[in-house]
Amino acid sequence: MIFSCAKCKVVRKICRTPEGKGPQNCPTVNEQAAVDEAMSEYGSPDIMEFARMASVQEGECYANRDQKPYVLHPVKPRIVEIIEFAQKMDYRKLGLAFCGGLTNEAGIVVGILEKHDFQVVNVSCKVGGVAKEKIGVKDSEKINIGSHESMCNPIGQALILNRAETDFNVLLGLCVGHDSLFLKYIQAPTTVLAVKDRVTAHNPLAAIYTANSYYARLKGLAFGSDEEMKARLIAGK
């Protein structure tokens, strides 16, 4: 069965209220075994406390919750959430894995975290200075053709933070795929401050929010090489 919560049209959803309902392909209705298995994982004291604090942090991100009827009033940016959650969990040593293209932003983040008495082990994606050819990248596939180009090394970032025995890690601007490798190899819990999006100043939802206007082409554009894109534009497609 293919589950698709994103397309659920039920108003009173069973995942939101006990009196709710779900469509035929509702995972809440059809995957009780998975829910039970998940709840058994939450039964571990460490996992339960982590999940509890995450939910407490979620609630604290809204102001005036005692007012009825309640209108959502968010008040905390994500960097504040990260600081407060780490404090709740009594984490002292944080890891920051960042994209070299966001070195300035990483410096600001480190400064903010240090102001809150965290020790911050921070590692750039280019750690090791290993040439892209080492992983089979051709010269024609580089950003700067004809020049040395260091590969992004998310596994190296993860292993260095593992060796430092960080309590909690933060991802800042890693590329698609590189972030996946980091998450595969990192040991401590990890959150994301921001992801890489070169076009939207690292705000990828900008393209989603405008998918019915400026980015409508996302719904019909077949992606390809620069030459293929240019040919489609000339053809008016």
Short description:
This protein is an alpha/beta fold.
Could you explain the architecture of this structure?
The chain has 237 residues and is an alpha/beta fold. The protein has nine helices and four strands. The chain has a four-stranded parallel β-sheet with strand order 2-1-3-4, with helices on both faces. Helix 7 links the parallel strand 3 and strand 4 (190-194). The longest helix is centred in the first third of the chain and has 16 residues, at 45-60. The chain is globular and about 65 Å long. The protein starts with 26 loop residues before the first helix and ends with a helix.
Give the strand order, joined by hyphens, for the main sheet. 2-1-3-4
Q: Outline the biggest β-sheet.
A: 4 strands, parallel
Parts with pLDDT < 50 across at least 5 consecutive residues: none
Distance between the termini: 35 Å
- Give the percentage of residues in beta strands: 5-15%
Estimate percent helicity. Answer: 25-40%
Strand/helix succession: HHHHEHEHEHEHH
Q: What is the overall silhouette?
A: globular
